[in-house]
Description:
457 residues, alpha/beta, 20 helices, 9 strands, ATP-binding protein
Amino acid sequence: MGVNLGRFFRACNPSKTLNLISPDDGKYYIDFSEVRGSDLVRELKRTITFSDHEPTCQLFTGHIGCGKSTELSRLRQELEDEGYHVVYFESTDDLDMGDVDISDILLAIAKQVSKSLEEARLRLTPNKFQKLLQSTATLLNSEVTGLKVKIPEIAGFKVGEEVGLSSEDGNYSLAFGIGELTTKAKDSKDVRSLLRQHLEPRINSILEVINSELIDTANQQLSTQDKAGLVVIVDNLDRIDNKPRGQGRRQPEYLFVDRGDQLKKLRCHVVYTVPLVLSFSNEQENLTNRFGSAPQVLPMVRTQNRDGSPCEAGISALRQMLLARAFPDLSAKERLARVGELFDSLETLDRLCLASGGHVRNLLVLINYCLKKADPPFTRELLDRVISLRLSDLTKAIDFEEWGLLREVNRTKTVRGEGEYQSLLRSLFVFEYRDAGQTWFALNPVLLNAEELKSDA
Length: 457
């Protein structure tokens, strides 16, 4: 039986995150820890399990699209296997990444934790939280004059009514009430501003209410069910904009350095994704002191060694990543025997893996281009055309100064400081690799054919 092209195309969707809780997605997962230089999921997990009931707060980062969400899905699965109740959510569902404050993050966490606990049939009695929501709804309704939002629609509440702790089916739901607020806040800058004016001065009180009425209650009830504890994984916070926040601070520094003490006060295990720029910021040491450890950086899959020679183990792992999406029910050896159904030669597949630079989303983008243009088996000629198109896309965004920086990175294998990060890593012009405890940088392989790299002009 040949390749199911429809299934293969869907499995290679660059915007799809593998959910390892799903048996189908689990068939596509490849463990890259050996060729990334470390097993960060194991390190995150050990920190949680060794700490037992003592709360931990860890930071996780890496390039957008390098596989962080998939690895966090693996962390969730392994922790659930160990008996933890894990609340995983994508913060982009609740937050406007261009404008985020601590109260926004805490409300999103409260919403997702309460929703998960309600689904697990744990009993919550959030009396203080109910009063907080009532006062917030009253404030929004009383001060909304002039905004382009109808008063009765603010957060779904009306003055004098009970807070919206009942969902549409009439069942008691704290998550529903908080969700009404966060949805309105995400959709309206004006509502968001009013909400913060009310909540920011009360942050310490909000933290205490979340801890006492949600987290402590959850941990007590989970212990009676022989559960190991509560873990919250907040994904996609690495996507917050690096925009100025006032007083010379940018949004990531403001949230995780200036306000980091509040983010780590939740009385459960928490993992936050954070922007990679913080690893290159002058505030990195302050961040490390604030949280007790530096952010864990997920490197690329190593397709080359530091001396530029091919990394056979990395290339082999990337081959399996693609082949598993075409032949999910076969063994690694059986998949390799069917390479000819996808590519005109093994060398063409390896050329594709090398061109990705070990960035998993880049690999999916390239194969997605191929699938849109032709049916397999894909030829070397088609692949070269696709790589050329990607080169054209990338070079449009590179200015004269950045070409100079790229030539220097190509020579030294280093990137230093926030300025170079902004120019090179954020735009995926440069990738970070790790081996035997050493870190180095290399250009996105697609750029290596650019004429501008061959000249100092």
